[in-house]
Amino acid sequence: EIVMTQSPPTLSVSPGERATLSCRASQSLSSNLAWYQQKPGQAPRLLIYGASTRATGVPARFSGSGSGTEFTLTISSLQSGDFAIYYCHQYNNWPYTFGQGTKLEIK
Amino acid sequence: QVQLQESGPGLVEPSETLSLTCTVAGASINSNFWSWIRQPPGRGLECIGYIYHTGRIDYNPSLKSRVTISLDTSKNQFSLHLSSVIAADTAVYYCASGYEIFDYWGQGALVTVSS
C-alpha cells in the first residue's frame, strides 16, 4: 500500500497570503494524484486531479504541481473560505490512499 | 447535477453487519463507477471499494474479507455491507461517484458501532 505523507500537519497563514502544502508518496505515482478540500461537517470537494488539472468550478488561485513522489498544492491570495483541511489522494495503485491532511488555519 | 444520498442505521452492535444504501439522482447507475469511502471521527479518509455495472468490483484488502458492494439498477442505488463490525469501524461513510477521482459525494452517514 502506498503511504501518503502530508506536510505540515497544520499551516497558519494570513488572508491574502500564499499557502503551499506538500504531499509525498512512498513510491512513484506518475501524475495520478488528486487534492481535496474538506470543511467541518462536509464531504470532501475535489480540487485538483492529474496532479495539476483543476476540477470544474475550482478557482484559478488553486494550483497543483509535481510528479513522481513529490507534489504541491498552492493557494494564492487566501480567502476566508479556503481555511479547511486539505487531503492528497493517490490513485496509481489500489488500494488508493489518502494523506492524513493539512489543516490550513487563519493566522 | 449528480446528487448522492446515504441512508441506513446510525448505530450497529459489535459483530453485526453494517448496511448502507446510496441513492443516486441526476445520473444512471449504469454510467459510472461508484465508491464507498469512510472517515473515522477526527481522522483521514479510507477507500473501502468500488463497483461498476459490468460487474467489476474491487475492495480494500484490509476489509476484503468483510465487505460487499452491490448495485440495484432498478432503484438507481448501490449498497455497502460490512460484516462483523468492531468499534474501529465507527466512521462517517461516504458514497461517491468515480473510483480514481471522486467528483460527487454524498453528505456522509455517521455509523457508530456500540452495544
Helix content of chain B: under 10%
Mean of residue pLDDT values of chain A = 97
Query: What are the low-pLDDT stretches of chain A, counting only 5+ consecutive residues below 50?
Result: none
Q: What is the element string of chain A, with H for helices and E for strands? A: EEEEEEEEEEE
Average pLDDT of chain B works out at 96
Strand percentage of chain B: over 45%
Question: Approximately how much beta-strand content do the residues of chain A carry?
Answer: over 45%
Number of H- or I-type helical stretches of chain B: 0
Question: What sort of overall outline of chain B do the alpha carbons produce when their principal axes are compared?
Answer: globular
Q: How far apart are the termini of chain B?
A: 39 Å
Strand order of the largest sheet of chain B: 2-10-9-4-5-6
Number of beta strands of chain B: 10
- Protein structure class of chain B: mainly beta
Number of strands of chain A: 11
In short:
Chain A is mostly beta strands and 107 residues long.
Secondary structure: elements and pairs:
The complex is a heterodimer of chains A (107) and B (115).
Chain A: E1 4-7, E2 10-13, E3 19-25, E4 33-38, E5 45-49, E6 53-54, E7 62-67, E8 70-75, E9 85-90, E10 97-98, E11 102-106
Parallel strand pairs in A: 2-11
Antiparallel strand pairs in A: 1-3, 3-8, 4-5, 4-9, 5-6, 7-8, 9-10, 9-11
Chain B: E1 3-7, E2 11-12, E3 18-25, E4 34-39, E5 46-51, E6 57-59, E7 67-72, E8 77-82, E9 91-97, E10 109-113
Parallel strand pairs in B: 2-10
Antiparallel strand pairs in B: 1-3, 3-8, 4-5, 4-9, 5-6, 7-8, 9-10
How does this model look, in words?
The complex is a heterodimer of chains A (107) and B (115). Chain A has 107 residues and is mainly β. Helix content of chain A is 0%, strand content 50%. In chain A, the strands form two sheets. In chain A, strands 2, 4, 5, 6, 9, 10 and 11 form a seven-stranded mixed β-sheet that branches. Chain A has a four-stranded antiparallel β-sheet with strand order 1-3-8-7, with no helix packed on it. Chain A is globular and about 35 Å long. The N and C termini of chain A lie far apart (35 Å). The mean pLDDT of chain A is 97. Helices cover 0% and strands 47% of the residues of chain B. The mean pLDDT of chain B is 96. With 115 residues, chain B is mainly beta. Chain B is globular and about 40 Å long. Chain B starts with a strand and ends with a strand. In chain B, the strands form two sheets. Chain B has a six-stranded mixed β-sheet, with no helix packed on it. A four-stranded antiparallel β-sheet of chain B has the order 1-3-8-7, with no helix packed on it. Chain B has strands spanning 3-7, 11-12, 18-25, 34-39, 46-51, 57-59, 67-72, 77-82, 91-97, 109-113. Chain B contains no helices and ten strands. Chains A and B meet through strand 5 and strand 10 of A and loops of B.
